[in-house]
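New to this. Please check this protein:
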Amino acid sequence: MDECNTCLLIMGCPEVPVQMSVVLYLSNKLKKSGRDVTVAGTDAALKLLKVADIEGHYVEKTMDVDQCIADIVEKKINFDCCFAFMHSDAGLTYAATMSAISSVKLYAVIFGKNAESLSDSVDFPAEKIVAKAVHNPVPLKSKIDKVIA
């Protein structure tokens, strides 16, 4: 993680409750360690994030995930590392896209009821962080802590 100064956190569909709390947690940890953090997400995910962190204590920069991808392709922005949150094929697609369009250090944060089978579908270079977490964020948080320590 030492080489990661600019970090992107990508949120897909906010259907699984642990995603929001872990994104807020991870953003805060990265920010406190001196990293520049941007959170990209779907419209619904960003609205949940903004309501949960109304004053921007944990997340200062957000952007639409599709615009983020377009800006990376057009070389308007770049990141050193990316944490792609996924509990479905849509999240897997965002992570695969990041792998294809960028040389970013990619962390596939895989969670939900089908975390193990989704993890088996990751066929691109990424460090996998996998926990069968749906409502309880602690198993996923613990695994993230080991990676960012």
